[in-house]
Design brief:
heterodimer; A: 425 residues; alpha/beta; seven-stranded mixed sheet; 12 helices; globular; B: 89 residues; mainly beta; five-stranded mixed sheet; two-stranded antiparallel ribbon; binds flavin-adenine dinucleotide; binds FE2/S2 (inorganic) cluster; oxidoreductase activity (chain B); iron-sulfur cluster binding (chain B); (2Fe-2S)-binding protein (chain B); 2Fe-2S_ferredoxin-like_sf (chain B)
């Protein structure tokens, strides 16, 4: 099966939606693909059904009216030749031939290993938050959150709003860095983050800076957490622990297409075009910047893709949110102690059960792959590769297709798409 | 921010490891798993239990057999009526 379009948008978070709206409204035939069952990305999870968030409602309504086509549950797995993507959808697959592309694949959490982090009930901070948005029964449950930055507070607010009891918020950053950052925040148009800060203050959860999780303990599931709180140790009992350290962009699709990256962000010009002609990147792919950055860069790329003039205000807004992203990166940098929590038998690679001790002597990710099978499992190093980057300073490797585990059949190019193959499909 | 109690939300009933679970439409299978006694999606190579970690299709800890299709991510799959979910743990 195949699809053709002027513009393919990979990812239906705020970045992808804004790009799709602008381009479709300008008359392009736009196809939007997302692995999730609904549009909205991470921050607007479930909003297509609930309509509780005004900003989300505005964009989702605009998207529905824009004329852009949306395919949910569609995962981009390979890019066999320029202008073609292979997509897996449920138990079938199809190819997309496109004129231009906007990559809006967003970000994931940075997990760092500590003893007990593989126990059921230990999740990411935002991982727990999105599960709660998806109907996770959190009412009456005791939750400890450990991590960094405004997402910690956003998660606390969501859990609280759904009846969960947030016992403790451990912010790894030092007090000085944290409050310096929080004060900066008010100067930037990060509406959601401001909201999160305020709601966290309102629910009055004990919060400490200079605090992090040392270990999770329990028989078969997490039962308590050992925390370091300004040099003292505390051990609250809890039902769930959310522990993660900021976000990192999902660069796999961009790398697979050959886009240049630098300092964990896709390199783009002022039209948000990557070094690969006709391929744009937006949102978290440009560096972690939240929903405002995603929207403004999405609009810019959508207009650029449709060869429309870019309004000056839009450019100004972009420069403002960009400054905010730089602040966030400084604040979110994990402190040194977090790199020393794992013991020799703590697993680093969760898919292949690779303990820290197995990496002795490895100099880089490639050696760790070859000698210890790090990153060779189902998630293809999305979790452990990112952790290894922080723990050992190993840079990420080039992505080889498929960029997500895929069935063999999904990787065959349909004959009506291929220009070089003449196989019957 | 608080949601109204799900008075108008339609419900669906699925089976997770043979056990019937009834949830509001829109609940993900990973979220429904937490309504069973064990929030466990698989066993690691030494047989220790694992549960969902990222909630967003990145970590692959939540893979299960859903309606006969193996290796489906529970966190990206909405619950449907009569769905059959089997975890490998
Ligand atoms: C779990 C999580 C929760 C968050 N919660 C908040 C919050 O409460 N408040 C806040 O301000 N910010 C939150 N953020 C930050 C958030 O990343 C941004 O605010 C915003 O969502 C970024 O928009 P985006 O369009 O760049 O990416 P996203 O919203 O992350 O959207 C990216 C989309 O791309 C899709 N995708 C990725 N790879 C593929 C592929 N190969 N094939 C098909 N589709 C793919 C994903 O399914 C996803 O829907 C959260 C981030 C995460 C990771
Ligand atoms: S919980 Fe990580 S992929 Fe589903």
């Amino acid at each position: 099966m195949r699809e053709a379009c002027d513009l393919v948008v990979v990812g239906a978070g705020p970045g992808g939606l804004a790009a799709a709206c602008r381009a479709a409204e300008a008359g392009l035939d736009v196809l939007v693909l997302d692995a999730q069952p609904e549009p909205g990305g991470q921050v607007w999870r479930g909003e297509a059904r609930k309509g509780a968030n005004r900003l989300a409602r505005r964009w989702l309504t605009r998207f529905a009216a824009s004329g852009a086509r949306f395919r949910p549950g569609a995962r981009v797995v390979a890019a066999p030749q320029p202008g073609v993507l292979l997509v897996e959808e449920g138990s079938s697959s199809f190819a997309v031939r496109y004129g231009r592309a906007v990559l809006a694949t967003g970000a994931r959490e940075r997990f760092l290993p500590f003893p007990g982090w593989t126990l059921p009930g230990v999740l990411g901070v935002s991982g727990l938050q999105v599960l709660v948005k998806d109907g996770f029964p959190i009412r009456g449950k005791r939750v400890v959150l450990a991590g960094t930055g405004p997402l910690l507070l956003a998660a606390a607010a969501t859990i609280h709003a759904h009846g969960g009891e947030v016992l403790y918020i451990a912010e790894q950053a030092s007090a000085a860095s944290h409050w310096g950052f929080a004060l900066q925040l008010w100067r930037h148009p990060a509406r959601l983050l401001q909201g999160a800060l305020m709601s966290a203050a309102l629910i009055s959860v004990p919060t400490s800076t200079d605090a992090w999780v040392i270990a999770a303990e329990g028989e078969g599931r997490v039962e308590s957490v050992r925390l370091s709180v300004r040099g003292r140790e505390e051990q609250p009992r809890c039902d769930y622990l959310g522990a993660a350290y900021g976000l990192v962009p999902n660069l796999e699709v961009a790398r697979m297409l050959g886009c240049e990256t630098s300092a964990s962000a896709v390199v783009v010009n002022e039209r948000l075009e990557t070094r690969v002609p006709k391929v744009h990147a937006v949102g978290e792919l440009l560096g972690i910047g939240g929903v405002d950055q995603a929207l403004v860069t999405g609009e810019l790329a959508g207009l650029a893709a449709a060869e429309q003039p870019i309004p000056v205000e839009l450019e100004h807004t972009w420069h403002r949110v960009h400054a905010f992203a730089a602040q966030l990166a400084l604040h979110d940098a994990p402190r040194a102690e977090l790199r020393r929590l794992a013991t020799p038998d703590t697993l680093l690679c969760r898919c292949e059960d690779v303990p820290m001790s197995a990496l002795e002597g490895c100099q880089n990710l490639r050696e760790a792959r070859l000698y210890a099978r790090l990153g060779m499992g189902a998630c293809q190093g999305r979790t452990c590769g990112t952790a290894a980057q922080t723990l050992f300073g190993w840079p990420g490797e080039d992505v080889r297709p498929p960029c997500l585990p895929a069935r063999i059949g999904s990787l065959r190019l349909p004959s009506d798409v291929s220009s070089t193959h003449t196989r019957e499909s | 921010m608080r949601e109204p109690a799900s008075k108008a939300t339609p419900l669906v009933t699925l089976r997770i490891n043979g056990r019937a679970v009834t949830v509001p439409v829109g609940t993900s299978v990973a979220a429904a798993l937490a309504m069973t006694d064990r929030f466990v999606s698989r066993a690691d190579l030494s047989g220790r239990p694992r549960g969902p970690l990222c909630g967003m299709g990145v970590c692959f800890e939540c893979r299960a057999t859903i309606d006969g299709v193996p290796e489906v991510l529970m966190c990206l799959t909405p619950c449907r009526e009569d769905q059959e979910v089997v975890t490998d743990a």
